[in-house]
């Protein structure tokens, strides 16, 4: 790691000011993505501004059909929250599949969503459940948040404060893990929401995406069989040492059926 | 530039002036000479460096010492009490759950955390929970046995 200055502000205003004053500052939350990146010397920020001391970024609440989760909430806290498990069991299950227990004790929801790793789990839940990102500047709907490989609609000094998930009628997640990294080779989140059926696919392509053909089929009949014969274009898939585009396209179909099965319970 | 960091390590408050980029594992090994916490990969994969931060298992190679400011950290050196091995350490010895021993400190710290959350774990739970801890020697079989026995001993 190159040298940097470290700050741990107590308020959002101080965090924004510290970042603004730094020549090349970066926020850090759990550090489970950022620290490995820094160790590889892939980035050399002048300052790290730690968000985890800011009280208003924490907390989980469920009311009026909305699950609201503070940005610095750890994966482990989401996995074990009785309130989340009751309202959206698929979300708690997904959190329990991220990395390993030690990673889940540090990594945060805001960090994962802001990072938008193509193989991360949370982006599929955010997109599948039609969640809303609340930031220090505005509200951003899931459909316009994830803009590309490691790219989001967030501006430089914008902080995700919390994420609101509307409680769906039912939802399910299934993940086919890369056995070495434990990230998703393919992960599919399906949800029957107030605005219809949504199917979000992570791991398979360069960025999480909605599978419109599957959404149409599941709107007619919410069952694994409804997905029979639906093809996914291999040209849109990642093609790397872990799997070819054809392999991933096939996996999307298999994993989606299991996700629907999980939603049906 | 250095910053002053105070961490309670194994019940003892420790203050050191360190560079902000100092990892917790460096703080423990290089500043406090607590070398029981190992570095296997330095890439967050192997779990040899697992310690408890405020009672929860964390990879000490993937957290800055500054992030642990004010926290209570327990390392493998802090488990034995009054010269008596912790029940999980005793179970690893009894069930021959180590060969070279390099992964063992991290395995045991993860296992103690696991047993605190799952007092009566079955084999599947143990294997799932230890996914972040790699062992190149044992084939895991005896580790799983030891963790189940250690959890039982911790229940008393
Ligand atoms: C061994 C290992 C296995 C893993 N396996 C998985 C897996 O299976 N699935 C998975 O999804 N992930 C996995 N991860 C990644 C993990 O989930 C990370 O916790 C997550 O990607 C980033 O969260 P963080 O809080 O650690 O963020 P950090 O690393 O602290 O930050 C990541 C980025 O987000 C920015 N950021 C952080 N918080 C905010 C905020 N509130 N607003 C705006 N920007 C912010 C930071 O500036 C930085 O650019 C794994 C990591 C490791 C080390
Ligand atoms: S040394 Fe920390 S995970 Fe391997
Ligand atoms: S005993 Fe040698 S690595 Fe586990």
Question: Tags for this entry?
Answer:
heterodimer, A: 265 residues, alpha+beta, Uridine Diphospho-n-acetylenolpyruvylglucosamine Reductase, domain 2, Uridine Diphospho-n-acetylenolpyruvylglucosamine Reductase, domain 3, 2 domains, 31% helix, B: 156 residues, Ubiquitin-like (UB roll), DNA polymerase, domain 1, 5-stranded mixed beta sheet, 5 strands, binds flavin-adenine dinucleotide, binds FE2/S2 (inorganic) cluster
What does this structure look like?
The complex is a heterodimer of chains A (265) and B (156). Chain A has two domains: 5-50, Uridine Diphospho-n-acetylenolpyruvylglucosamine Reductase, domain 2 (2-Layer Sandwich), CATH 3.30.43.10; 58-264, Uridine Diphospho-n-acetylenolpyruvylglucosamine Reductase, domain 3. Chain A has ten helices and 14 strands. In chain A, 31% of the residues lie in helices and 25% in strands. With 156 residues, chain B is of the alpha+beta class. In chain B, 33% of the residues lie in helices and 16% in strands. Chain B contains five helices and five strands.
Identify the strand order in the major beta sheet of chain A: 4-5-10-6-7
Q: Strand tally of chain B, please?
A: 5
Strand content of chain A: 15-25%
What proportion of the residues of chain A is helical, as a percent range?
Answer: 25-40%
Q: What is the strand content of chain B?
A: 15-25%
Q: Averaging pLDDT over every residue of chain B, what do you get?
A: 97
Structural class of chain A: alpha+beta
| CATH domain class of the largest domain in chain B | Alpha Beta
CATH superfamily of the largest domain in chain B: Beta-grasp domain
Oligomer: heterodimer
Radius of gyration of chain A, CA atoms, in whole angstroms: 18 Å
What is the fold's blueprint, element by element?
The complex is a heterodimer of chains A (265) and B (156).
Chain A: E1 5-7, H1 12-21, E2 25-28, H2 34-39, E3 47-50, E4 60-63, E5 66-70, H3 75-80, H4 82-87, H5 89-95, H6 101-104, H7 109-115, H8 122-128, E6 132-135, E7 139-141, E8 146-148, E9 151-152, E10 160-166, E11 170-177, E12 184-193, E13 196-202, E14 209-210, H9 212-220, H10 245-264
Parallel strand pairs in A: 1-3, 2-3
Antiparallel strand pairs in A: 4-5, 5-10, 6-7, 6-10, 8-9, 11-12, 12-13, 13-14
Chain B: E1 3-9, E2 12-18, H1 24-31, E3 50-53, E4 56-59, E5 72-74, H2 87-94, H3 104-117, H4 123-129, H5 141-155
Parallel strand pairs in B: 1-5
Antiparallel strand pairs in B: 1-2, 3-4, 3-5
Helix pairs in contact in B: 2-5, 3-5
The structure holds flavin-adenine dinucleotide and FE2/S2 (inorganic) cluster (2 copies).
């Amino acid at each position: 790691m190159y040298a940097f200055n470290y700050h741990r502000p107590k308020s959002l205003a101080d965090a924004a000011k510290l970042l603004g004053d730094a020549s090349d500052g970066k926020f850090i939350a759990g550090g489970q993505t950022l620290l490995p990146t820094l160790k590889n010397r892939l980035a050399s920020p002048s300052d790290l501004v730690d968000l985890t001391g800011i009280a208003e970024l924490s907390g989980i609440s469920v009311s009026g059909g909305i699950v609201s989760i503070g940005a610095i909430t750890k994966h482990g806290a989401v996995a074990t929250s009785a309130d989340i498990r009751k309202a959206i069991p698929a979300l708690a299950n997904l959190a329990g599949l991220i990395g390993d227990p030690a990673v889940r004790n540090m990594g945060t929801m805001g960090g994962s969503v802001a990072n938008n790793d193509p193989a991360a789990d949370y982006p599929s839940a955010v997109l599948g459940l039609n969640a809303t990102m609340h930031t220090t500047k505005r509200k951003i709907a899931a459909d316009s948040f994830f803009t590309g490989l490691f790219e989001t609609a967030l501006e430089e000094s914008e902080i995700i404060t919390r994420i609101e998930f509307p409680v769906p009628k039912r939802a399910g997640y299934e993940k086919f893990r890369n056995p070495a990294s434990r990230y998703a080779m393919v992960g599919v989140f399906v949800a029957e929401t107030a605005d219809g059926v949504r199917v979000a696919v992570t791991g398979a392509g360069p960025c999480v995406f909605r599978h419109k053909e599957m959404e149409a089929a599941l709107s007619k009949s919410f069952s694994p069989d409804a997905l029979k014969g639906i093809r996914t274009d291999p040209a849109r898939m990642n093609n790397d040492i872990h799997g070819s585009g054809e392999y991933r396209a096939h996996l999307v179909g298999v994993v989606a059926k299991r996700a629907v099965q999980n939603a049906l319970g | 530039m250095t910053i002053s960091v105070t961490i309670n390590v194994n019940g003892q408050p420790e203050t050191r002036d360190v560079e902000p980029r100092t990892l917790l594992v460096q703080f423990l090994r290089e500043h406090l000479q607590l070398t029981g916490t190992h570095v296997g990969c330095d890439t967050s994969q192997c779990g040899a460096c697992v310690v408890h931060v405020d009672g929860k298992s964390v990879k000490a190679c993937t957290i800055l010492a500054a992030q642990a400011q004010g926290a209570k950290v327990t390392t493998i050196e802090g488990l034995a009490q009054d010269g008596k091995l912790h029940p999980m350490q005793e179970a690893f010895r009894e069930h021959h759950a180590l060969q070279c021993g390099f992964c063992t400190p991290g395995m045991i710290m993860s296992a103690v955390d696991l047993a605190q959350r799952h007092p009566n774990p079955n084999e599947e739970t143990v294997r799932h929970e230890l996914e972040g801890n790699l062992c190149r020697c044992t084939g895991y079989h005896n580790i799983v046995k030891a963790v189940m026995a250690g959890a039982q001993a911790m229940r008393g």
